[in-house]
Design brief:
The chain is of the alpha+beta class. The chain contains three helices and nine strands, in the order αββββββαβαββ. Keywords: Membrane, Transmembrane, Transmembrane helix.
């Protein structure tokens, strides 16, 4: 026997709860799917934006360690990093093998591109000669704590060379700047100082200067016939000055010409000091005499006379 639709039993409260739960689950699933779809769309959009502004790069050889000067470059000192092609340094290498064995003529810091301008010519040996430009000479001079600026002279500094000597017999000794703005190539056996060594005094006995051929002759004569003094220049100061030199008579004459107070100038008024008041004379001692006359009583004072000795 079949049941007609109009004869079906009405939905119970339990059935209604099940239907609401089913609708809730369905809504939650749809919301999750929608969120995932939105996230995927945003990710694709951002990737497209990044791809649109991404700059093409090319490999550039850089230093993986601090490379010292006048030292052949080793393979483990080099690495390759991506570099924007729009900002490639001129002459930058892309293969480390092309730079292995070459000699640095300036310090190269870690992460810095290794460029031909920082390297000696191909085939150059390590040592001080690689640091000399064409036409320049390296001359070593003997120094001490005084001549070498108390040990604060470092490779790369600029100095003036002052010599004190007697030009000829019967002429006073003269001090004169003979060389200016001379580069210090090395101090002692150090071509460069790094870290704490560059901050503390470094007493040495020899300094190597970079000079021209003519300057090397002047430096040699000054060192052999006179006494040298190195004057440290300020960083970036390359100005050349014209000095006349100085002799002991000129030195003492200039000291005697220091400004003095002219005799014609009126003397400054003196402050008067009040004289001390004279000590007061001590009060004279008085003697009191009491006189009694019957019913009368009288008191009289008499000054005591100084006793004679």
């Amino acid at each position: 026997m079949s049941i007609r639709p109009d004869e079906q039993s009405p939905a119970t409260p339990r059935d209604k709860r099940k239907r609401r739960a089913a609708w809730g689950v369905t809504f939650l699933v749809v919301a999750i799917l929608a969120a995932v779809g939105v996230a995927l769309l945003l990710t694709r959009y951002m990737d497209a934006r990044v791809a649109a502004v991404r700059v093409p790069t090319s490999g550039v050889v850089v230093a993986q360690v601090d490379i010292p000067v006048a030292t052949p470059i080793k393979p483990e000192w080099l690495g390759v990093v991506p570099w924007p092609v729009t900002a490639l340094p001129p002459g930058a290498a892309s293969e480390p093998a092309a730079l292995v064995g070459q000699v640095a003529i300036v310090p190269i810091t870690r992460g810095e591109a290794v460029l031909p301008s920082k390297l000696a010519t191909a085939g150059a040996r390590s040592g001080l000669a690689t640091l000399l430009p064409a036409g320049m000479r390296a001359v070593a001079v003997r120094v001490d704590d005084v001549v070498g600026v108390a040990g604060f002279l470092h490779p790369g500094d600029r100095v003036d060379v002052i010599v004190t000597m007697q030009p000829r017999e019967g002429v006073p000794y003269t001090s004169k700047i003979v060389l200016q703005n001379v580069k210090v190539l090395a101090v002692g056996q150090h071509l460069e100082l790094r870290g704490k060594d560059a901050e503390k005094p470094n007493p040495v006995t020899v300094a190597t200067l970079m000079v021209t051929g003519d300057e090397s002759e002047r430096l040699a004569l000054s060192a052999s016939k006179g006494q040298l003094l190195l004057s440290l220049r300020a960083l970036g100061d390359e100005e050349l000055v014209d000095t006349k030199g100085i002799t002991p008579p000129v030195l003492f004459a200039s000291a005697a010409q220091e400004p003095r107070v002219a005799a014609s100038e009126p003397a400054k008024p003196r402050t008067r000091v009040a004289a001390r008041p004279a000590p007061a004379e001590p009060a004279k001692e008085k003697q009191v005499v009491e006189i009694l006359r019957g019913d009368l009583y009288e008191k009289r004072n008499f000054e005591a006379k100084e006793s004679r000795r």
